[in-house]
Amino acid sequence: MSWLDNVPNPDTGKKGVTEAFQTPGELRDLYTQRLGRPPDEQELKAAFAYQSQELLKEQMLKLTKYKNQIREGATRWTLGGLQDASERGDVAGTLKYKDFTGTQLNELPTTGTILVMHGGI
Fold first, then answer.
1. pLDDT tens track for 45-84
2. In 10 A of CB 110, how many CB atoms?
3. How far is the C-alpha of 61 from the C-alpha of 37, rounded, in Å?
4. Quick check: pTM over 0.70?
5. Residue 102: strand, helix, or coil
6. What is the separation of C-alpha 16 from the centre of its chain, rounded to a whole number of angstroms?
7. What are the sequence ranges of the domains in the chain?
8. Strand partners, 77
9. H/E element holding 77?
10. Which long-range contacts (CB under 8 A, 24 or more apart) does 44-48 make?
C-alpha cells in the first residue's frame, strides 16, 4: 500500500492512503492505472482495513497531541485585526481572525518560536 502514499485525492488534492480512495470503485481505478489490473477480494479487504487503521492512528496522534497541550496548560487563542484591502482586493476594514493553541509563560523560552503579547483585552 506504500505506493498510495503519493497518490492525490482528485477532489481535495491531499495525498496519502487515507485520502487516495473512498470507494471500492476508486480503489479499482487506482489499481488499474498503477498496476494494470483490478484488485482481488483479499486486496480490497486489506486496503480498507489498512485505511481504517491509518485513520485510527491519525486520530490517536491528534488526541495525544491535544492531551499533551492540555497538560502543559495550553489554551485556544484568537487574534483579530483589520485586513488591508490591497491584500485580498476586498473592502478595506474587514476583520481577519486567526485561531491557535498556546501556553502562557512567565519567562521567555530558550528554544522554539514564540509570540510575545503585552496587555490584554
1. 988 998 899 889 999 999 999 899 888 888 888 887 776 6
2. 6
3. 35
4. no
5. strand
6. 12
7. 2-70, 73-121
8. 100
9. strand 75-82
10. 46/1, 47/1, 47/21, 48/24
